[in-house]
Amino acid sequence: MSVSPTIVLVHGAFADAASWAPVTRALLDQGYTVRVPAVPNRSLIGDAAYIRSVVEQIEGPVLLAGHSYGGAVITVAGVAENVVGLVYVSGYALEEGESLGQLQGGFPDSDLAQHLVYTPFPVEGGEPGTDVSVEVAAFPEVFAHGVPLERAEVLAVSQRPLAALAFGENAPVAAWKTKPAWGIVSSADHTINPDVERFGYQRAGLRTVVELDAPHLVMQSHPAEVAKVITDAIADLA
Fold first, then answer.
1. Least trusted range by pLDDT, from 1-10, 45-54, 156-165, 195-204
2. Which of 1, 77, 181, 225 could make an SS bond with 86 (beta carbons 3.0 to 4.6 A apart)?
3. Per residue in 122-160, pLDDT tens?
């Protein structure tokens, strides 16, 4: 590939663009062009449409990297013509017609389920929606396990919830069917059963899967390793 792609980092549920900060810094320091958009976290279809719109306004090729729920988002948004590859980071590699709930439901529950909080939010002209977040007290251990406590506590009180609607929506497409993809499994993940990640990646036929002894927020705990998987993917595309 003659032109290095812009790297678009897509955050997941219960996090925001700042969750990618250590990896963003590492990639910028290496001279890469990086974008880290804020995902609305309102619905899988809507979030994917938004990220696709961001991608399509970028001139030249794009490599999408999605963490956790962001993996589901890039699965749908990644069909944009200028997307040249996908990197799943502790993410959901959905099959076409599959929902988050269906993929996760095929494996034993993670530690997360018992620590979720459901909060209504207003929807103009319709029934109230439901936001899902992680109990603030449980967040450091369940979601940010392996991240320094001082930082985990900040992440806990600034988390971005995910609308419950997103768990049941089926992915209308699966970009990995037509785009090359790579993945990271967090083997010490307390949020998603690592077997969810392994199963999705194997089914999708990812080119390379790297297993790290890392928590769910692997971008925070192992930023150098995550950045390397991304840059190795770019080298693989060359």
1. 1-10
2. 181
3. 988 888 999 999 999 999 999 998 899 999 999 999 999
User: Do the beta carbons of residue 62 and residue 6 sit within 8 Å?
Assistant: yes
Q: What pLDDT shows up at residue 112?
A: 86
Q: Which residues of 17-27 are buried (b: 16+ CB within 10 A; e: fewer)?
A: bbbbebbbebb
| Position 1 in a domain | no
Number of domains present in the structure of the chain: 1
Examine residue 151 and state whether it is found in any structural domain, yes or no: no
Structural domain containing residue 89: 6-104+166-237
